[in-house]
Amino acid sequence: MKNRIMSIVRHIPNALTSGNLFLGTTGAYLALVGRPDLTAWCVLAAALLDFLDGFAARMLHAYSDIGKDLDSLADLVSFGVAPAAVLSAMVHFSLTGQWSGLFLTLEMTQQALVLMPFLLVVFSALRLAKFNNDERQSESFIGLTTTATGMFTVSLAYLIFKEGGWWLQLTNPWAVLAMVAVFSALLVSEIPMFSLKFKSFGWKGNENRYVLLVVSLFALVFLQVGALAVIVPAYVLYSIVLAVSIRSKISNKKAG
């Protein structure tokens, strides 16, 4: 009986990962039928399950090759396909004034513009493959994570959908394609991104994390779900500044 219970318990991490995959798939569908605001909730819930499946695997010592592959697949869908569908819906809105519609009724040029955001899926896949085979990323990250990219995208779409006004200017196809290009480059870049994991709660060694935490709290107060559209760029810029600062110090020491 005990062995049977343990056998069932060891499937908990994969069950959570499967939930992540289901939410990502659902989010992609909701974006394509014109509800990117609901996609945002699906992706944020998927991010929570993505955290919990890793936590459960560590607690239960339930690691497996199947779990690793399933996790990458779920992340690709939830933080690659669903966000790309949201960006595609944004382009569709800019071209037609509607968040969804019949793709085949669009002109060929418009169809191409609507499909271009799905290039983000390709770079998300490259990022995940790189992460799975890069031993340098055990403690920190090299390049932006798919999770951060996905959460930024759906958070921004949520703001645009709910607030309207000047936010709608960001649905311009060229603005969207610029975002796709920037985030695709960040996904496969060699830019070091500092880890958000706290090993202790003291100030020393956690200065960067606490600074980002304060910025995040202010953003959450004013923007709620849309806060991630501010938090992720702040994280990226702060990581770049830190990387430049560290390289400058190393260069000065070598010169001295």
Q: State which percent range the strand residues make up.
A: under 5%
Q: In sequence order, what are the helices and strands, one letter per element? A: HHHHHHEHHEHH
Order the strands across the largest sheet as they lie in space: 1-2
Radius of gyration: 20 Å
Strand-pairing-aware structural class: mainly alpha
Write a structural description.
- The chain is an all-alpha fold.
- The chain has ten helices and two strands, in the order ααααααβααβαα.
- Strands 1-2 form a two-stranded antiparallel sheet.
- α3 (36-60) runs antiparallel to α4.
- The longest helix has 32 residues, at 65-96.
- The relative contact order is 0.10.
List the helices and strands and how they pair.
Layout: H1 2-9, H2 12-32, H3 36-60, H4 65-96, H5 108-115, H6 119-132, E1 141-142, H7 146-163, H8 173-187, E2 192-193, H9 207-223, H10 228-255
Give me some keywords for this one.
2 strands; 256 residues; two-stranded antiparallel sheet; mainly alpha; 2% strand
Question: In brief, what are we looking at here?
Answer:
With 256 residues, the protein is mainly alpha-helical.
